[in-house]
């Protein structure tokens, strides 16, 4: 494959890379959207079943004494799927806050909130969006990536600390350069290990074609980063599950 690519012209290679990136973004967006719709459908079926059982209970025990009937009434109004989902959401939110707490207390991380990244979303908000969606994807798809490493990479993957829209000539290669800048800052301020360094460096793959994701954490961040960037750019953040 490498020999075949070497025979192509630079413009053709660039076009091919853009096409591949577009396919990855579209595929990721559709996959996450379908997962969301599927979850809603399962909840809908489950609630329908609970309501059907409640009707049967009412018919069977409708003529019991008033005290017992009140107990049955309590059972009938108990919407287990909704309560379960609310409880799960609260537990996930609590766990997510615990995992991100140290980063939000860091002065260097707070600086990211000064710079707009995509649309009206700041760099810090983008990193939190990536962290949240990565956390949910890892949970819901049971990918078993290390949560602490996953959140760490997500919160630091764009720690470049400048406005890449400022028109400076050096910003023209921002897409290629910023993973290394962010990685160096993450090493300097947080002393991250090699595995997390690799995940930050590879989050712009396949734009940086040689920086291939080599771990579950790296692959999740690579895919989710593109999904969040797209949603933020077209400003559909909240509608598609992002935090900002």
Overview of the structural elements:
This protein is an all-alpha fold and 244 residues long. It has a single domain, classed as Hypothetical protein af1432, CATH 1.10.3210. Helix content is 69%, strand content 2%. The protein contains ten helices and two strands, in the order H-H-H-H-H-E-E-H-H-H-H-H. Strands 1-2 form a two-stranded antiparallel sheet. Helix 7 packs across helix 9 and helix 9 runs parallel beside helix 10. The protein is globular, with a radius of gyration of 23 Å. About 2% of the residues have low confidence.
Question: Key terms for this structure?
Answer:
244 residues, mainly alpha, Hypothetical protein af1432, two-stranded antiparallel ribbon, 10 helices, globular
């Amino acid at each position: 494959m490498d020999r075949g690519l070497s025979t192509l012209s630079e413009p053709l290679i660039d076009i091919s890379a853009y096409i591949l990136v577009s396919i990855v973004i579209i595929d990721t967006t559709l996959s996450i959207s379908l997962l969301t719709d599927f979850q809603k459908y399962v909840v809908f079926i489950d609630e329908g079943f609970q309501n059907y059982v409640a009707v049967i209970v009412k018919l069977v025990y409708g003529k019991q004494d008033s005290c017992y009937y009140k107990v049955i009434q309590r059972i009938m109004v108990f919407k287990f799927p909704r309560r379960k989902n609310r409880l799960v959401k609260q537990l996930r939110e609590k766990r997510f806050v615990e995992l991100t707490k140290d980063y939000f207390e860091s002065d260097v991380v707070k600086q990211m909130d000064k710079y707009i990244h995509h649309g009206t979303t700041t760099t810090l908000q983008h990193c939190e969006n990536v962290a949240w969606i990565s956390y949910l994807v890892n949970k819901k798809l049971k990918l078993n990536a290390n949560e602490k490493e996953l959140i760490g990479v997500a919160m630091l993957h764009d720690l470049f600390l400048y406005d890449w829209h400022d028109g400076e000539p050096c910003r023209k290669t921002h897409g290629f350069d910023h993973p290394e800048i962010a990685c160096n800052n993450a090493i300097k301020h947080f002393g991250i290990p090699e595995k997390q360094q690799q995940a930050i460096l590879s989050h712009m793959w396949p734009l940086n074609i040689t920086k291939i994701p080599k771990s579950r954490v790296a692959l999740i961040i690579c895919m989710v980063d593109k999904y969040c960037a797209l949603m933020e750019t077209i400003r559909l953040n909240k509608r598609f599950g992002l935090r900002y």
